[in-house]
């Protein structure tokens, strides 16, 4: 290895075991045990889903804040939002405030669940003076088209009698008037980018209600009602706001939140991994490096579909950099990943163990595997 060898460490989190930042630190500890002269550049990654806020905040030396908001069932929950280093970009994951994990299985009902808390997180970011918002919209408990978000930011959704609609997708069929008189004016001065990896339209067979409604507690009858309500919602938006979101790819993400963000925020949808690559500055770091390490909890043939390791490898191959990936679990049919840019894959679990123990010892196992890889690389053939 040449003097001043540089490795970019760009793993995703290993869910329930270690964050992306902790994975970077464990990799570096293993590397430094063997060769203290290797420079390690930490770029904690994510794919736009859970952990994206944490990774981008860590990668940019930003800050995370907690806030009590209204949860999907109208109860109070503690949620988080982040401000990236520099203070001008806010980031949040709608699941933090409006996620399905916040609703017990026996209480899931998309007729009543709301995205109001997500709107409160957006307001908190605006209060910090941000000029751009990054929003991850996976893992929702809702099917309200983002109506709750609009209400939280001062918009009024009224029925034919001028009464405010209650929470939930079950109310959207009553929508008669959209009143944006008191809608937060600061939204005019910011740009909104939405991490979205689904291509579902708002309504129809591949729409939000039919595809995702059942996992949120919707019966067949509820799915039909919700689908019709979202179609009505889209028609009113087109008539009164002048935005046609009915058949836009991605509009059905997060129970139609994708449509709401496009219609009321001029939001643009981006693939999650592409957003993370951009805002972590990964490409600039890879340009100057000799090698790239990545990884996530499980690597298999599905990794090729927008997951972090392949996203990192795609950037690395633009500059002809070798890529090593690490995983807690190495699954089937990984040969396709070698064809797409990953040069070698290492499982980090060193012996037969329970899942609980493997998760608990994730950092220890990562450190030891990283050490062994560097020892192999240091051999004189």
UniProtKB/TrEMBL annotation:
This is Putative glycerate kinase. GO terms for biological process: organic acid phosphorylation. GO terms for molecular function: glycerate kinase activity. Pfam families: Gly_kinase. It comes from Clostridium celatum DSM 1785. Belongs to the glycerate kinase type-1 family. Keywords: Kinase, Transferase. Gene3D superfamilies: Glycerate kinase, domain 1 (3.40.50.10350), Glycerate kinase, domain 2 (3.90.1510.10).
């Amino acid at each position: 290895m040449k003097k001043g060898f540089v490795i970019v460490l760009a793993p995703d989190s290993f869910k329930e075991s270690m964050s992306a930042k902790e994975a970077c630190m464990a990799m570096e500890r293993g590397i430094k045990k063997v060769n203290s002269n290797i420079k390690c550049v930490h770029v904690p990654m994510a794919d736009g889903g859970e952990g994206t806020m944490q990774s981008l905040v860590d990668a940019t030396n930003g800050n995370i804040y907690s806030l009590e908001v209204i949860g999907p069932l109208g109860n109070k929950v503690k949620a988080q939002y982040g401000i990236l280093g520099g203070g001008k970009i806010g980031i949040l994951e709608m699941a933090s405030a409006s996620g399905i994990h916040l609703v017990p299985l026996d209480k899931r009902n998309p007729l009543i669940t709301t995205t109001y808390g997500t709107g409160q997180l957006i307001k908190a970011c605006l209060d910090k003076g941000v000029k751009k918002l990054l929003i991850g919209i996976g893992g929702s408990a809702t099917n309200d088209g983002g109506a709750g978000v609009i209400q939280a930011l001062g918009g009024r959704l009224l029925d034919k009698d001028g009464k405010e609609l209650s929470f939930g997708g079950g109310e959207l069929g009553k929508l008669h008037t959209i009143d944006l008189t008191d809608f937060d004016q600061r939204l005019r001065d910011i740009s909104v980018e939405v991490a979205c990896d689904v291509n579902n339209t708002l309504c129809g067979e591949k729409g939000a209600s039919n595809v995702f409604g059942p996992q949120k507690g919707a019966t067949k009858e509820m799915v039909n009602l919700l689908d019709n309500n979202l179609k009505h919602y889209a028609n009113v938006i087109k008539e009164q706001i002048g935005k046609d979101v009915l058949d836009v790819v991605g509009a059905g993400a997060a129970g139609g939140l994708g449509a709401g963000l496009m219609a009321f925020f001029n939001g643009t949808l981006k693939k999650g991994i592409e957003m993370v690559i951009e805002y972590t500055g990964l490409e600039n770091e890879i340009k100057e490096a000799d090698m790239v390490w990545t990884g996530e909890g499980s690597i298999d043939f599905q990794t090729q579909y927008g997951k972090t390791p392949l996203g990192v490898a795609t950037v690395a191959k633009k500059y002809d950099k070798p890529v090593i990936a690490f995983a807690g679990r190495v699954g089937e049919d990984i040969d396709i990943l070698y064809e797409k840019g990953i040069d070698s894959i290492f499982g980090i679990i060193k012996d037969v163990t329970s899942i609980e123990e493997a998760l608990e010892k994730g950092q220890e196992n990562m450190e030891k595997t990283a050490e062994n890889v560097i020892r192999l690389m240091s051999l004189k053939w």
